[in-house]
Amino acid sequence: MQSREETATNVLQETGAALIHAHDDGRIISGQGTISLELLEQAPRMDTKRVPISGGGLKSGVALAAKSFNPAI
């Protein structure tokens, strides 16, 4: 049985596709951060956010966007 990395490498080589990590890619983290911007636009006084943590990309995006929108956060 091949590892996930070996399988992904084979698929990438065969298809020319790009591997995009769900929690380790700046583009994904930036996109996930838009959740925070929407929340802050709708509830600007919000002082607490609860975000599920898995790989950390969602949490990172939400925190980075919130901090850039409001440095006091």
TrEMBL record:
A Pfam family reported for this protein in Swiss-Prot or TrEMBL: PALP
Annotated ranges, domain Tryptophan synthase beta chain-like PALP: 3-72
Protein name: Tryptophan synthase beta chain-like PALP domain-containing protein
SUPFAM superfamilies membership: Tryptophan synthase beta subunit-like PLP-dependent enzymes
This protein's UniProt keywords: Pyridoxal phosphate
Family: Belongs to the serine/threonine dehydratase family.
Annotated InterPro entries: TrpB-like_PALP, TrpB-like_PALP_sf
Cofactor annotation: pyridoxal 5'-phosphate
Alphabetical list of Gene3D superfamilies matching this protein: 3.40.50.1100
GO MF annotations, alphabetized: ATP binding; D-serine ammonia-lyase activity; L-serine ammonia-lyase activity; magnesium ion binding; pyridoxal phosphate binding; serine racemase activity; threonine racemase activity
GO biological process: D-serine biosynthetic process
